[in-house]
Design a protein that fits this description.
Elements: H1 3-27, H2 31-39, H3 49-83, H4 94-103, H5 108-116, E1 119-125, H6 134-149, H7 157-177, H8 187-219, E2 235-236, E3 239-240, H9 254-282, H10 294-316, H11 322-338, H12 352-368, H13 372-389, E4 395-401, H14 402-415, H15 428-440, H16 454-473, E5 478-484, H17 489-501, E6 511-515, H18 518-532, H19 535-540, E7 547-553, H20 554-561, H21 563-583, E8 587-593, H22 605-610, E9 620-626, H23 627-634, H24 637-660, H25 669-687, H26 692-699, H27 702-707, H28 728-737, H29 748-758, H30 760-772, H31 774-789, H32 792-799, H33 805-830, H34 834-837, H35 839-846, H36 849-868, H37 874-895
Parallel strand pairs: 1-2, 1-3, 1-9, 3-4, 4-5, 5-6, 6-7, 7-8, 8-9
Helix pairs in contact: 1-3, 1-7, 3-6, 3-36, 3-37, 6-7, 8-9, 8-24, 9-11, 9-13, 9-16, 10-11, 12-13, 14-16, 14-17, 15-17, 18-21, 20-21, 20-28, 21-25, 25-29, 29-30, 29-33, 30-31, 36-37
Length: about 900
């Protein structure tokens, strides 16, 4: 399929779905909405409350329909490439990776070794814009399946017409359902959304991903027998922050954490139980026509005897079918696990590893007796499910801010009558001396019967919940203890102290620094070096298989220094931190705290991984998938499968590249240092200019985000109205909603202009590097995407919200000058206009821009009205706040990337 044909197909599909949408609206007499969609004019329609609600809903659905069509087109394009025997050209696919390795003469066994050592851990988090009802997500799925069905060229005209009618009826159901939750979501609502994906989406995606790896392996001509063993497949596990992330989130209580862990376990066990029932029903192998191995008969007898009456019933249920009998007995033992029948350790599974061993035995029995097809087709998905989800579904990370920890320590010291209790104000040397002394002392510092203060009690109670869960079920469901704003070694040792007090030091839980600001990234290597050399870290190392996790914060470093300085300092930090770990005989892996946009580390997974420095991925990656990105990346099973494959194959590719030193080119690090510094200075000059906070508060809807019902977490960590205290998500989100999007590009134009003026030869070197340096190319393409999503016409509408003429003109000039310079010098860098290179991006915007403009006009109108209402007028304030939430969600759908 050529590019032109591809664009024509997307256009035809868009026209088809819009026609269906307009037909549905005409059948329910929504003629004014039809005019709006056709002519992009609000006219008098928004003068009435109910009408403006309809405008918002109509445009929101329109944008989502465009996204669904584009997703389907991308999937069909990849399928067409497979049909045209172009499968190796699909970027981010297993076929591309296997073809590349074969071309490099890498042997099959070496490839399998790398694949099986690949660990991928997507971690799901909540996000302000992800407020869609699960019902609407299911409607998306139904609609997508109808669009896929329509692709069948063998369908008759009557069958095509029938599909069209079903789409029209489905669109009416969507229209009448309502888009979002109108009440502020609780942690429980966000958790339910995450559980939906973990239970309903990812098991299907895992199976499809495995099937595609098998198919790619065979297609490339490798030995098909080698790819049937589930043990050689990538290790894919999931994580979650919802119910565990308490950084500035007062609603995540110890009870919520306890409840979340129990829910995770319950849902995981149910998932596995249903899969075993499904497989048992299909495993109709008779002992009359098939010889039964002695080992199977023997183990059935043993298991039945141990399980007593329940075991006896399980065997009698399927006489002459020992294969079903075996799985029946596995089901009985699993049911005891579900029911918490824990008095006798022989009748329940103590861990998912025990179940994996039972399934491996069954696999061996099937294969040894020539039933390979049954093992590969029926048992394989179950084995993979248990390996992926275990009895915990997803590992729950526990995150808290270092300043919160400090308060807790101070409260404890004050309660036990220490002479000096102002721990927050102690210098680093004094803090470490104190912490080492406590850690070396076997006596506890705290008493479970005493209350020490809100922060101290909260942390200790949370850790006790974790301790109790591990005591009962093991540590499988617990992720890492992550310390936000890690500034010093003592920030990590404080966690050791809390772990000591709650009997957790003996567990395999990792203590993880989160390096967020540019200063923290620069100090990170020294902090890590001291941490790895600490006596307790050394003692605990074997429990963690000499692995260490470090989390990198993309959002705060961007807020701190702008996008170019942020990405470059992250790149350098990864290299330096990896070197420190190697020096300390530790295998380091990174937890990338990314979001949907470049401002927060977003982008295509395969490009993101290719941009990593060599020897920093090490076969293992942990990465956040934040609320608004979950639906985009994993809401649709085919899109989700592609993205999961891009992540896993990308990690494997990096491992082989590092192992064989396949990418040892020398790049212009000195030039990037220069660009980073200049962009940082220019960005800091902007945000430190007098009046900037006032300007920002007026021309963005940050005040709405701070007070709205979006997300369960407050927009600020402590409630202080400063840039430092503002969370990075609303910082990025608010700028993008005004189409200013400066968090994704500000500083680049100035830096490139300086480089060309002061170091023209280096500018030419950079032009050469952009062709073959994945990091540079990825950074510049993503920055350009943010520039294209910005819109000067819309910017000016929001600039006019600032009634201080001098202030408005000053910042308008700075921002628009930087915007124009960035576009100009990127064009010079690529030696080609963006309109030629980025046809897909321009095509997507073409179908959205006019309708986005209508929505922005409505947003501004409602925002002004809301701001003019007095604080005493609470009912009207609340109504307008709810409407602003609806508009924000609609804009998010239109822009696809917001925060």
């Amino acid at each position: 399929m050529t590019t032109n044909n591809s664009f024509q197909k997307i256009e035809n599909d868009r026209i088809f779905i819009i026609d269906c949408y307009l037909e549905m609206l005409s059948r329910i007499d929504e003629y004014e909405i039809i005019e709006l969609l056709k002519n992009n004019q609000i006219s008098e329609l928004n003068n009435h409350q109910s009408n403006s609600d309809k405008i918002i809903q109509a445009l929101s659905i329109y944008f989502q329909l465009m996204t669904l069509v584009e997703e389907n087109a991308a999937t069909q394009f990849r399928r067409k490439m497979e049909d045209d025997e172009n499968i190796n050209s699909i970027r981010g696919s297993w076929s591309e990776a296997l073809h590349f390795w074969k071309e490099k003469n890498i042997k099959e066994d070496e490839i399998l070794s790398v694949i099986s050592a690949t660990h991928v851990n997507p971690v799901l988090t909540a996000h302000p814009t992800e407020a869609k009802r699960i019902t609407v997500i299911e409607i998306h799925r139904e609609l997508y399946l109808l669009l896929v069905k329509r692709e069948n060229s063998s369908l008759s005209k009557l069958e095509q017409k029938s599909i069209q009618e079903k789409i029209i009826h489905l669109l009416e159901r969507w229209w009448r359902t309502g888009e979002i939750y109108l009440e502020k979501p609780q942690v429980e609502d966000e958790r339910a959304n995450i559980l939906y994906y973990l239970q309903r989406k990812f098991p299907i995606v895992l199976e499809k991903s495995d099937e595609q790896l098998k198919a790619a392996w065979r297609e490339i001509g490798f030995n098909s027998d080698k790819i049937n063993n589930p043990d050689v497949f990538p290790k894919i596990n999931f994580g979650s922050w919802v119910g565990g992330d308490r950084d500035g989130h007062p609603f995540v209580t110890p009870f919520i954490t306890q409840e979340t862990l129990e829910l995770h376990r319950k849902k995981a066990l149910l998932l596995i139980k249903n899969k075993i029932i499904e497989i048992t029903s299909k495993l109709s192998v008779s002992a009359i026509s098939n010889s039964v191995p002695d080992s199977l008969i023997e183990i059935i007898q043993k298991k039945a005897a141990v399980l007593g009456e329940s075991g006896e019933k399980a065997v009698k249920r399927n006489p002459y079918e020992p294969w079903r009998q075996y799985l029946n007995l596995v089901s009985v033992k699993l049911e005891n696990t579900i029911l918490n029948n824990l008095a006798d350790s022989t009748i329940y599974y103590k861990s998912s590893l025990e179940l994996q061993n039972d399934l491996k035995f069954f696999r061996d029995v099937l294969i040894e007796n020539g039933m390979n097809g049954l093992a590969y087709d029926l048992l394989f998905p179950l084995e993979r499910m248990v390996a992926c989800f275990g009895f915990h579904l997803a590992k729950l990370d526990i995150r808290q801010n270092s300043a919160y920890h400090d308060k807790a320590i101070a409260q404890i010291l004050k309660t036990i009558d220490e002479k000096e209790s102002d721990f927050e104000n102690w210098n680093e040397e004094k803090r470490i001396d104190f912490l080492n002394k406590i850690l070396e002392n076997n006596s506890p510092l705290t008493d479970i019967t005493i209350s020490y203060g809100p922060e101290a009690d909260n942390i200790l109670d949370c850790y006790r919940v974790i301790s109790q869960h591990i005591y009962q079920y093991g540590a499988e469901g617990i992720g890492s203890f992550i310390v936000s704003m890690t500034r010093n070694l003592s920030d990590l040792l404080v966690v050791y102290l809390f772990m000591k007090e709650t009997q957790l030091l003996n567990t395999s839980i990792k203590v993880v620094p989160l390096l967020e600001t540019i200063e923290d990234l620069n100090n990170g290597p020294q902090i890590l070096d001291r941490f790895l050399q600490h006596s307790i870290t050394k003692i605990r190392a074997s429990k963690m298989n000499y692995n260490q996790e470090v989390m990198l914060g993309y959002s705060d470093s961007n807020k701190d220094g702008g996008t170019i300085a942020s990405k470059w300092n992250l790149h350098k930090a990864e290299q330096k931190l990896s070197e420190i770990a190697k020096k300390n005989n530790t295998s380091l892996y990174f937890f990338h705290g990314t979001g949907g946009t470049i401002s927060r580390g977003g982008g295509k997974y395969h490009r993101f991984l290719e941009s990593m420095p060599l020897n920093t991925v090490n076969g293992n990656i942990k990465i956040t998938v934040q609320g608004e990105s979950i639906a985009q990346l994993f809401g649709n099973p085919m899109t989700a499968t592609y993205n999961l494959n891009a992540l896993t194959s990308g990690v494997a590719k990096q491992s082989i590249a590092s192992k064989l030193n396949l990418n040892d080119q020398q790049y212009s690090f000195d030039i990037m240092d220069y660009l980073s510094q200049k962009s940082y200075e220019h960005y800091r000059d902007l945000i430190e200019t007098d009046g900037f906070i006032d300007f920002y508060s007026k021309v963005t809807c940050i005040d709405v985000l701070e007070k709205s019902k979006i997300g369960s977490r407050p927009a600020r960590r402590t409630g202080t109205r400063t840039l430092n205290d503002l969370r990075a998500i609303p910082w990025v989100f608010s700028w993008n909603l005004s189409r200013i999007s400066l968090t994704g590009w500000y500083g680049l134009g100035y830096a490139l202009k300086k480089l060309k003026t002061e170091k023209p030869d280096d500018f030419q070197r950079l032009k050469q590097n952009i062709k073959n340096w994945p990091f540079l190319k990825f950074l510049m393409i993503q920055t350009e995407t943010n520039l294209l999503l910005s819109d000067v016409k819309v910017m000016n509408l929001y600039f006019n919200l600032d009634d201080n003429d001098e202030e408005r003109l000053l910042f308008m000039s700075k921002i628009t000058t930087e915007y124009n310079d960035s576009l100009q010098f990127l064009e010079e860098l690529f030696d080609e206009k963006a309109k030629i290179r980025r046809k897909g991006q321009y095509d997507n915007l073409k179908w959205r821009s006019e309708k986005l403009y209508v929505l922005h006009e409505l947003h501004l109108q409602q925002l002004k009205h809301w701001r003019n209402l007095s604080e005493e007028n609470t009912n009207d304030k609340e109504k307008f706040l709810t409407k602003l939430l609806s508009i924000i969600n609609a804009l998010s759908s239109g822009l696809k990337n917001t925060g």
